[in-house]
């Protein structure tokens, strides 16, 4: 499990305003507490460049957190995208924030449905890796 160190995290947070920083902190805490086996890094690729990116131990992309040009903070959750069960279970609470198949946008810290996201994220790496393994067969 790889995590950003304090200096890397400070560099990531530097361009964010106070509300954005609070939202990122909430989302990051949910991910690392509920799915502790994920690896964390700052994405340097073309898609989601500059976002916090979380991969499973098998290297599968699971989550991303970052600021959008609109000022909102986006949370991408491939677990939601890839699971009909999670969509049915958590969709009603998350649909107001859903902007794509796996992306949720948040404007303010108080808008983040922490308990719903925590339940959805819980052990997501295991579920993604199992799903990918099933599809490779």
What can you see in these coordinates?
This protein is an alpha+beta fold. It is 45% helix and 18% strand. It has helices at 6-13, 18-34, 78-81, 84-94, 114-121, 124-136, and strands spanning 39-42, 52-55, 61-67, 73-77, 103-106. Strands 1-2-3-4-5 form a 5-stranded antiparallel sheet. Strand 2 and strand 3 form a beta hairpin. The model has no long low-confidence stretch (mean pLDDT 92).
Outline the fold blueprint.
Layout (H helix, E strand, L loop, with lengths): L5 H8 L4 H17 L4 E4 L9 E4 L5 E7 L5 E5 H4 L2 H11 L8 E4 L7 H8 L2 H13 L1
Antiparallel strand pairs: 1-2, 2-3, 3-4, 4-5
Give a quick summary of the entry.
The chain is α+β, with helices and mostly antiparallel strands and 137 residues long. It is built from six helices and five strands, in the order H-H-E-E-E-E-H-H-E-H-H. The longest helix is centred in the N-terminal third of the chain and has 17 residues, at 18-34.
